[in-house]
Amino acid sequence: MLPTDPVRRRRVGLALVGVLVLVVVVALVGVTLGRGGDDDAGGGSAAPSPTDTGTPLEDVDTTTLTVAREPFCEAVEPASVLRALALTTEDTDRVDAVAWENGQKTALEPGLRDVAHEHGCSWQGPGGVRARAWVFAPPTTVAEARALRSSTTGTEGCSPAAGAPAYGTPTVAADCQDGPRREQVLAGLFGDAWLTCTLAAPRSGDEAPTREELAARASTWCAAVAGAASSG
Known about the structure:
Layout: H1 6-12, H2 78-85, E1 96-100, E2 105-109, E3 112-115, E4 118-124, E5 130-136, H3 142-153, E6 158-160, E7 171-178, E8 181-190, E9 193-202, H4 211-229
Antiparallel strand pairs: 1-4, 2-3, 4-5, 5-9, 6-7, 7-8, 8-9
Helix pairs in contact: 2-4
């Protein structure tokens, strides 16, 4: 089991932070990784260059950022998504992208549909790597944030990610294992917005990243998410 999130369970009806949110009908304007035109997410560069490794969280002071509790997926740079998934522009048509918004009736898992109280998005590549991010629509208090921090690192299969930089305040970073999958979870309070960012990948296989490699990619991915979701 991946991290239990009591606040999300109360608001969304789902206890597992790591469950893939499947949207039955979603208008993915700006969320897909197209090759050009107005539908590209964020309107930025289509892919990272071989020398562009992105900006790691260590170089970003996230404690000064303010995140708006509203949709942000269109602002996520396509290059940051491809970098997180370890893909190039040649793979963009093979990326599955979904998004969901506050108040949308959503298939949270097989057999369970509920109304989401968050804004979020997910991208999954052909190799099974999955990058996700979401922000709660209702405001989160400091007390709730501390409860979320405790529940994340206290979940079976998860342990604190030692040495991880702050991701808002209070903040939490966890390394989670669920069967064949490993997931890096970074979350924190930005003003009154609880922002969560995850990067998951297979634990075995020729292209499976090491724990250190996945953590490094999660660092740059979550820095990009914080920048996209930040209003300050």
